[in-house]
Amino acid sequence: DAKTTQPTSMDCAEGRAANLPCNHSTISGNEYVYWYRQIHSQGPQYIIHGLKNNETNEMASLIITEDRKSSTLILPHATLRDTAVYYCIVRFISSGSARQLTFGSGTQLTVLP
Amino acid sequence: GAGVSQSPSNKVTEKGKDVELRCDPISGHTALYWYRQSLGQGLEFLIYFQGNSAPDKSGLPSDRFSAERTGGSVSTLTIQRTQQEDSAVYLCASSLGVMPGELFFGEGSRLTVL
Question: What is the band of A68 on the pLDDT scale with cuts at 50, 70, 90?
Answer without folding.
Answer: very high
